[in-house]
Design goal:
The complex is a heterodimer of chains A (337) and B (243). Chain A is an all-alpha fold. Chain A is built from 11 helices and 1 strand; from the N terminus they run αααααααβαααα. Chain A is globular and about 70 Å long. Chain A starts with a helix and ends in a 9-residue tail after the last helix. In chain B, the strands form 5 sheets. A 3-stranded mixed β-sheet of chain B has the order 10-1-11. A two-stranded antiparallel ribbon of chain B has the order 2-3. The longest helix of chain B has 12 residues, at 18-29. In chain B, 23% of the residues lie in helices and 21% in strands. By secondary structure, chain B is α+β, with helices and mostly antiparallel strands. Chain B has 2 domains: 4-200, Alpha-Beta Plaits; 205-243, no CATH class. Classes of the chains: A mainly alpha (337), B alpha+beta (243).
């Protein structure tokens, strides 16, 4: 699929904000009374967690052909995941704002935590609906898997945790919580690294059951596209496909794993073994790396998605690493379609 | 239930693209139009088409045939594009099963085109809405047209008469008769979308070519066939098309 930048920015940045918000409400509920986190930190983190989804929301309008009618997208929430995403994104932003307002105005703890709890529910619902939007398309095997929602939540939490840790180091230097959070970042980054690795492995062999024989309804093993019927590229060859060589695919996979998870993992481990240091700069860098890496990751997520529509144009799975089972298979043995 | 649909005979289709061209010509000025073009006279012309024809080579030489596959919206009975539309702009009509887009409600998110397994929806960059085959809904009920022309533009124009239009749920319709007699099938039934458009497969054709008759015709046409017929009589008289 063609990676549209507005969607990439929306899903990545909203994910950072959601992850950060979830974490800071939990920290608020657990540690504010005992004084292990300061209101100053919570306020700063809540502001940052608001900025990310707002940028994402602004970007999402560039995806629409008719942004002024965007509000109509809430109508079919009963059946469309996209509709649900459109509802939960502003709901999350609104609850994030409400939480920030209650925190800033010094409202009773119960109200604030209740708003925070509702915000967490909205954030999780938003993760789920934006991931299911992709996972629900059963004609793209690389998307229609449980890995998609797991990864959306996991990568959002990882980036959010890194951003929250940076905020903790800046606003509460020398306090234990920043040190503890570096363990969390290390754990989440390691978990993400494993999950994305597994996803790349899954994608390399995710074939649709539907092949060119089914697409044409002809039971002949030799079917070759002779003419797409158009002299130039058009919607069906551009929206569903962006050419990428196998080498580029491999390189991008390494970059995604390295930039978004491996380097931040090393940084978090360094922080975990050096409790005395003030590491706001280190975690800001880690956050920047994760966000950059996730933008690459989301682009690759789109580009590795193979729509079965591509069968008609000879583009199906042209982008993805060949299944090792296919290249090793002896001639004449049945191959995946 | 009534379900209007197209039946396309792949055996008759010659791949001339007349259906696609006439579709574009009618619909760009019809109610579903305009079908806008990007850079129409420039280097990379590109535009919205409701109907596209792809050509495939099926089989291996010498048992090989060319298949032209005209493909437009299948008007699925279980349309996945309608299910995912967040605004309800994409809808399936109860009375005749035609899947349409209400341009006034479409926000241009392209999600329906991702959900379509056949790639039969195209985005209009200029109007910012998704467009698709309407089965010429502005022709088939149009009382300003003579009765015999109340058919989709692609059906009327097809020079090989390879297309039929009708109600596939009604056994007496032309479309249903074509499906029954020509062993009509659906593309990708595994998609679960239950497409309504049907295709009739290529058929085996055997033509008997008699060597004597051929030589006689050649004589009449003043052609020296002894220089052209280099094979023996057996292989001349057998076969033409393969299974």
């Amino acid at each position: 699929m063609y990676p549209e930048m507005s969607l990439v920015i929306l899903t990545v940045l909203a994910g950072v904000g959601q992850g950060m918000f979830i974490l800071l409400v939990i920290l608020d509920a657990l540690f504010l009374k005992s004084g292990e986190v300061t209101p100053h930190f919570l306020t700063a983190a809540a502001v940052v967690s608001l900025v990310f989804p707002l940028i994402g929301m602004a970007a999402s309008f560039f995806h629409l052909g008719n942004p002024m009618r965007g509000y109509k997208a809430i109508f079919k929430w009963k059946r469309s995941w996209l509709s649900r995403e459109v509802i939960f994104l502003p709901a999350f932003v609104g609850l994030d704002m409400l939480y920030l307002l209650l925190l800033y105005s010094g409202a009773p703890e119960l109200y604030r935590l209740f708003a925070g709890f509702l915000g967490i529910v909205a954030a999780m619902a938003l993760y789920l609906s934006s991931a299911m939007l992709y996972a629900a398309i059963r004609f793209i095997k690389e998307w229609a898997t449980a890995l998609t929602p797991i990864n959306f939540v996991l990568f959002g939490l990882t980036s959010g945790a890194a951003a929250a840790t940076a905020a903790a180091h800046y606003t509460m230097p020398g306090m234990a919580i920043g040190y503890l959070l570096s363990y969390l970042v290390a754990f989440l980054a390691a978990f993400s690294l494993v999950m994305k690795g597994l996803t790349f492995q899954y994608n390399a062999s995710a074939y649709s059951d539907i092949g060119i024989k089914n697409a044409l309804g002809m039971n002949n093993p030799h079917i070759r596209l002779m003419d797409t019927g158009a002299a130039y590229a058009h919607y069906n060859t551009k929206e569903y496909f962006l050419p990428m060589t196998r080498r580029q695919n491999d390189l991008r996979q390494v970059l995604v794993l390295g930039i978004s998870f491996f380097l931040p993992l090393l940084m978090a481990l360094y922080a975990a073994y050096n409790p005395a240091l003030k590491l706001g700069g280190l975690f800001s860098t880690a956050t920047l790396l994760i966000v950059t890496g996730l933008i690459l990751e989301r682009r690759l997520f789109f580009m590795q998605g193979n729509h079965i529509q591509n069968l008609y144009y000879g583009n199906y799975r042209r982008n993805v690493v060949q299944n090792p089972a296919v290249s090793k298979a002896k001639p004449g043995t049945p191959q995946p379609k | 239930m009534s379900q209007k649909a197209l039946v396309i005979d792949l055996h008759k289709c010659v791949g001339c693209h007349a259906c696609a061209a006439n579709c574009k010509a009618w619909n760009t000025q019809g109610e579903a139009g305009p079908l806008t073009d990007t850079n129409p006279y420039g280097k990379d012309p590109e535009g919205v088409w409701f109907n596209r024809v792809q050509t495939y080579e099926v089989g291996k030489f010498p048992d090989v045939e060319v298949v032209h596959l005209p493909k437009s919206c299948m008007h699925c009975k279980n349309a996945p594009c309608v299910e995912v539309c967040p605004t309800g702009a994409s809808y399936k009509r109860m009375e005749d099963g035609i899947v349409l887009v209400n341009y006034d409600d479409c926000i241009g998110c392209k999600y329906c085109s991702w959900a379509c397994p056949y790639g039969c929806r195209e985005f209009d960059e200029f109007e910012g809405v998704m467009k698709k085959c309407t089965l010429c809904v502005d022709r088939i009920y149009n009382e300003a047209l003579p009765e015999e022309e109340r058919k989709p533009a692609c059906v009327i124009t097809c020079p090989a008469k390879a297309r039929a239009f009708g109600d596939i749920d009604e056994p007496d319709s032309e479309a249903s008769r074509w499906i029954a007699e020509g062993k009509g099938y659906k593309l990708m039934p595994e998609s679960g979308a239950d497409p309504s458009n049907h295709y009739l497969p290529k058929r085996k054709v055997k033509i008997h070519v008699d060597k004597e008759a051929l030589l006689k015709i050649a004589q009449l046409a003043h052609i020296d066939m002894t220089r052209h017929i280099i094979c023996d009589s057996d292989s001349v008289s057998e076969d033409v098309a393969q299974p």
